[in-house]
Amino acid sequence: MKTFPEGFDPEISTLRIIDHYIAETRLRLHRMEFTSGETLILKLDQNYHGAGQKAYQRIMTNICLTEVEYQTLAVLSGSSIIKRRYPYQYAGNDYSIDVFEANLDGLILMEIESLPERDILSLPIPGFTAREVTDDLLFTSRNLAELSREEFQRWLSSW
């Protein structure tokens, strides 16, 4: 996104998400918590793109975890992303606006999930967005997590 939509207040965040992609696997540790610090969900996902799938299509399996299980797995090497998630409605659809932190500070993505392909591709693109990235593999969370701050800044300046 190039700007926040009118009426959007990034100071009012409800969720913080930390995704840790375990090196050399298709596994992701997912932590979702309220900005107050209270944990909403902890899970281990197997999250990947199958052969011939588009960037926005994926195969996903989830296992809910306890805090102890999560902390046990969190020591495994890998790369992480941290973002704040905001609910947003546009053109009658429920979206999420993700504001990234740490290495990806400056990146803001708007996404919608769980729609059939024909519906995703026909959605109107809001004027406040910089670019449509639905089918761009660079914007998968795992790929973003693997970017260093310098790589991300270099990429961002080329836009």
Explained architecture:
Helix content is 18%, strand content 36%. The chain is α+β, with helices and mostly antiparallel strands. The protein has a single domain (15-157), classed as Hypothetical Protein Pfu-838710-001, CATH 2.40.320.10. It has a seven-stranded antiparallel beta sheet with strand order 4-3-2-1-5-6-7. It is globular. The mean pLDDT is 86.
Which structural traits does this protein have?
159 residues, alpha+beta, Hypothetical Protein Pfu-838710-001, 7-stranded antiparallel beta sheet, 4 helices
Q: Could you give a quick summary of the protein structure above?
A:
The protein contains four helices and seven strands, in the order ββββαβββααα. By secondary structure, it is α+β, with helices and mostly antiparallel strands.
What Rg, in angstroms, do the CA atoms define? 16 Å
Which CATH class?
Mainly Beta
Uncertain spans = none
Q: What is the strand content? A: 35-45%
Mean pLDDT reading: 86
Can you give the helix content as a percent range?
10-25%
Care to count the β-strands?
Answer: 7
- Tell me the number of helical segments per DSSP (H or I, 4 or more residues long): 4
Tally of domains: 1
Question: What would CATH call the architecture?
Answer: Beta Barrel
CATH third-tier fold name? Hypothetical Protein Pfu-838710-001
Largest sheet strand order? 4-3-2-1-5-6-7
Main sheet: strands, sense, barrel: 7 strands, antiparallel
Termini gap: 12 Å
Secondary-structure-based class equals alpha+beta
Give the ordered list of helices and strands.
Answer: EEEEHEEEHHH
According to CATH, the homologous superfamily is Hypothetical Protein Pfu-838710-001
Q: What spatial form do the alpha-carbon principal axes imply?
A: globular
